Every structure is written in structure tokens, then in C-alpha cells.
Amino acid sequence: MTNLPKGFLWGTATAGHQVEGNNTDSDIWALEQSGTPMLPERSGDACDSYHRWREDLDIVRDLGLNSYRFGIEWARIEPVPGHFSLAGLAHYRRMVEGCLERGITPVVTLHHFTSPAWFSAGGGWLGADGVDLFRRYVHQAKAILDGVPWVCTVNEPNMLAMITGARRAAAEPAGKEDGEHRQLVAGAMPPPDQAASEALISAHHAAREELSDLAGLRTGWTVANQNFEAVDGADDLAAEWAYTREDQFLDAAKDDDFVGVQAYTRVVLGPEGPREPEPGTRRTLTGWEFHPQALEGAVRHTAERTGGVPVMVTENGIATASDDERIEYTSGALAGLGRAIADGVDVRGYLHWSLLDNYEWGTWEPTFGLVEVDRQTFERTVKPSGRWYGDLARRGELPS
Ligand code: BGC
User: Which ligand 1 atom is nearest residue 353's CA?
Assistant: First the structure.
């Protein structure tokens, strides 16, 4: 059995927009209402976690987990530029305290894909003052972070830069040419907008500096890891893809307190670019290749690239309608994590994506949850995979 470090976090992760509901001042909410084929389904009430977060935390605790990653929504805290909502901040402070009261370690994400609508309308990350505006928001958010040991500044900046690049390049960036919704695989998207990448790196460093005077708080960001695999002599191309789409963001984490690893699948690159999985390849509900080994590869690559910055697995999971398949995938992923830990990689925790079947950015179809949510009544039902995962956490054992 792998020896896990003392205080290893066993948890689950969510993001504000995907579970809260009615995040009406955000840019993605506005995009959902625009009728873009990129987002055919809307978030609406989502899982109503904005009101039901206590119930969600009770589930986390009762499963036997000791950690919960959740996002705070900039649009609720600063609905109009320069106006900070004390009630918005107080809501998230109650969530932090709700975690602490239940013995749950909070892992707080400051930015998870969504920004206030006014921020994006004003140029967003590419706007002249994008980084300063983010820093101003982070300064205000400090008010709720007392007692929070782990803070993720920006979720998947590499995905965000790719989305920014795609949105700039075309009106219907993330859809197929016929405008159909497509599940995004970070590694197979158009290259990130380099200006956006650099702005996000500056924003992360500004946030880190802003948070540096809070005692006991560790700062990092969470990178989408894509496990690039070169075939047929595509090594140079793969190196270039890996740098622009992943490694420059890991390099920016070298002085961080931790780095978040988020891994789901792999991207195979031939000389012509990313290859579709062979016909007959097992795929998940997002269309991604079923590849539980992704986590081990991502954790090893991240540790190596950052020179040993402590790793927190901030997301890993599978979209499937079969709960047995979720257990199979997660067992495989955790076994790989155990091998990496046994080889000396410093891993501080594993936060499964996701607690709930949530809004998957334009569609409700891919179900990642350990807990099912009735979309009419919002009733939560723990799936067998949730109990299975909670049992592992209680025993503190990674499957071999
Ligand atoms: C994101 C989540 C998303 C998950 C599954 C990650 O890219 O951070 O918001 O739901 O992957 O697609």
C-alpha cells in the first residue's frame, strides 16, 4: 500500500457557475442567452447550490471526505465595476466557515472560466487593465479567505487562453464548422492566444503577490494537463504544442506553493496534428478517450516540469452514465497516482471532479458526479461510486 502524506486531502471539486445557478451577471450567462450553438443548453438554476451548499457540504462530510474545492464567482462579488457586494462576499464567507465547522478543508478557486459580463465586454484579459482589474477583485476576496489553506487563482488558464484565442479567431469558435456543440479537449483546440496566455500569467502572479500576506494560505493555479503523445515522428510538433498549451503555464508555477493538476485523457499527435482516437476506442460521454492513466502521466510531468512544486490533484474524473465505469476509471487513475507517490512525487491531495452532476459548459449530458441531482426538485442522490470513493478516503487507501 502506498504511504500517503499526513493530512492528505480526499475531496471533490465543483465550480461556481456549474452548480450555483443564476449567475446572471457573468459573461458565460450572457453567452448562454445569446443562442450561440457553442452553448446549446443553459445553466439556469444549475444544481441550486447557491442555496443548497449546506446540503452539499453535509454530503461531502458524510461520505467521509475531508476536503471540498469550490469556486467563488467574481460576477457576484463585483457585479458592476468597482462595486463590491458585501452580501456576495458574506455568502462565500459562510461557505468557508461551513467547511471549517464540518472538518472539511476548503480549497477555494478565485476564477473558474467565468468573469463578470462587464469585464469581458471591456476586453477581458486582453483589455489594457485586465490584470489590474483581476488584482483589485482578489484584494477584495481576501476578506473571506481567513482560515483557507489552499487557494487556486485561475482555473485552467491554458484552456482559458485557448478559448480566448478561438473566440477572437471566429464567431463560433468552439463548435464544429456546422455550429454543433463540441466538448472541448484542451489539447485539440486551436493554439492559445499568446497575449491572453501572458496576461493570465501576469494575473496569476499579481494574485499570488496580493495573497502573500495571508498567513497559512498556499497559492497555486490549476493547469489542464493533456498528456501529449507524439507518434510517427511528431516529437518537435508535440514539444511545441506542449509548450504553448501547457508547459508555459507550469513554468509560471515554479515559485508557487502548489500546482493543481487536472487530467482526464490524452492527446495523440501525429505530424498533421491531433489524431482522433482509432475507431472502436472506448470513449466517455464527453467523447474523450477512456484513459485513466492520464492522471499518473500528468502528475509526473507536472512535478518534473515545475522542478518539484507540491502537487494537488484539483480535478480528475469521468463523464459516464455507468457508475461502475466511474469506479473503474477512478480506480485506475488512483492506482497511477499511488505509483507516482511511491516514486517520490509530492502529492498533497486528490479532489475528484465532481461532487454533483453539473452544468458542463453548454450541455447537461456528460455526467461527472458522484452524486445525481434531480433537475426539477434539486434532490441529491449519492451514487454507489460516491460511497465507494468515501470508503477509500476513510481507509486512506489508494487502490493498487
Ligand atoms: C474544467 C471543468 C470541467 C471539467 C470537465 C475542466 O476542464 O475545469 O469546469 O467541467 O474539466 O470537462
Answer: 4
Q: How far is the CA of 14 from the centre of ligand 1 (A)?
A: 9
* 11 HSE (CA, 13 A, CB side): 28
Q: Are 242 and 267 in contact (CB under 8 A)?
A: no
Q: Which of 313, 100, 136 is nearest to 216 (CA)?
A: 100
Check if 101 is active-site: no
Computed over its alpha carbons, how large is the radius of gyration of the chain? 19
Ramachandran angles phi, psi of 377, nearest 5°: -100, -15
Residue 171 makes CB contacts below 8 A (sequence gap 6+) with none
> Measured in angstroms, how far is the CA atom of residue 356 from the centroid of ligand 1?
13
Length of the chain: 400
d(CA 208, CA 126): 20
> How far is ligand 1, taken at its centre, from the CA of residue 160, in Å?
11
Which H/E stretch holds residue 34? none
pLDDT tens per residue, range 273-315:
999 999 999 999 999 999 999 999 999 999 999 999 999 999 9
